[in-house]
Amino acid sequence: MNDFHIVINNLKYKVFSRHKRGHGIHSPFVFNLITHVFRNKIDPTVVSTIENIRKEMLADPSFVKVTDYGSGSKHFRDGMRKVSSIAKYSSVPKKYGELLHKFAAEYGGTDIIEMGTSLGISALYLATGARGTMVHTIEGCPVVSEIAKRNFEKAGCRNIRVYTGKFDEVLPELKEKNIRPGLVFIDGDHRKDALLKYFETICSMCNDKSVVIIDDIHRSVEMAEGWAEIKKMKNVSVTIDICRMGIVFLRKGISKFDYVIRY
Known about the structure:
Rossmann fold; 8-stranded mixed β-sheet; two-stranded antiparallel ribbon; globular
């Protein structure tokens, strides 16, 4: 069912998505976002550093015991996984990592929250996009968390703080510390009820200038349902669907609209 859903959604996306250069978009805010943020350039040496770490992970044949508190992986059915397989299936692809980098540079503010560290590729893109911003990244599996920490050291990133534990445990801790994220990246626990719960908690920590990016919004029927409910929420103004990810703006004073943009 999920594979069929993904195929149908990809077809709809190709047919109905608007031009990636902003053609046909009448909102000045969204047009500026696409022409400025989406099309920003990234220092190629930064990309090279991160992608070299990815290559190392893709070539790592060792097995690790993975603790998964979310919906689990559709590629693995037991707890033992190759590091190379985690890198292949769980790390954000390069083009989307670059987009996270651009959004971090534009909206990161003083703090960024990432839910789902995995091997740390996405956290590296976020952290290098906003060097003066602290990236608070949460990973449920202690073994994977340690690998990510080593990758952060290799990259020389000092503005990443790793929290090992369940999202339910760490998010209240960050809220208690009065963390007010400019950007949040949700990439873990791909269940509708969990997504809606975490989104509600995140919104209580954000201000109206904050941006929330949700990965795998069409990964399954229930993730698509969760995304559909988020788009209807009163505190949500503009949403952008780029097929893999959903981008949510909480801004006041701009017209509510849901865009599907080719990326």
